[in-house]
Amino acid sequence: MKKDISIEEIEIIEGIVYDSKYENQYSLPAWYKSIRNKNLSQLSDGNLARLIRQGMYLKHILFECINRLYKNPFRGEKYYGELIEVLSKNIDVSFWKENEECKKHMHNFLIHFDSNVSVENYKELGDFEKDEIMKSVNQLSRDIK
C-alpha cells in the first residue's frame, strides 16, 4: 500500500464519490475541500487530528501519524500531545483488531516510546500535560492488546 497519498487517492481506493454540494456552505466540508488534494505528508498535525476525530481514513493516515510521533511523541497543533491523545480517544478497540498492520505499527511505536522517551526530560511540558500524555500512551497500550 502506498503510504504518502492524497485524500483524493484514498477516496478512489475506498470507492468514495466526492460530493462538493456543501463545500462552500459549512466549515467541515470547506476544510475537507482544502485538504483533499494534499498528500498525507503535507497535512498539518491538526488536519490529521481532525481526520481521526471524524473517523476518516484511519487505516490510511495512521502510518503518517505514527511516523510523526517517532520524531516527536508530543506533537500537536492545538496543544502538546494532541496527536497521541486523539489516537487514544477516538479509535475504537475493534479497529485495532481488524487492522493488524496498523496495530503492529502502533505496538512498535509504543515499545519505542517506553524504551526511549521520558516525559520528565521535556521541560516545555507541564505536569498536567505529562499526565495526559501518559494516560493516552497507557490507553493505547491497553487498546491494542
Key descriptive features of the protein:
145 residues, 62% helix, single chain, 8 helices, mainly alpha
Describe this entry's structure for a reader.
With 145 residues, the protein is mainly alpha-helical. It has one domain. It contains eight helices and no strands. The protein has helices spanning 7-14, 27-35, 45-53, 58-71, 82-90, 93-98, 100-116, 127-144. The longest helix is centred in the C-terminal third of the chain and has 18 residues, at 127-144. 23% of the residues are buried.
Tell me the layout of helices and strands:
Elements: H1 7-14, H2 27-35, H3 45-53, H4 58-71, H5 82-90, H6 93-98, H7 100-116, H8 127-144
Helix pairs in contact: 3-5, 4-7, 5-8, 7-8
Structural domains: how many: 1
Number of helical regions: 8
**Proportion of β residues?**
under 5%
Structural class per helix/strand content? mainly alpha
Series of secondary-structure elements, N-terminal to C-terminal: HHHHHHHH
Q: Compute the CA-based radius of gyration.
A: 16 Å
> How many strand units?
0
Low-confidence stretches: none
Query: CA-to-CA gap between the ends?
Result: 24 Å
Give helix % range: 55-70%
Question: What best-fitting shape do the alpha-carbon axes yield?
Answer: globular
Mean pLDDT: 92
Q: Please give the largest β-sheet.
A: none
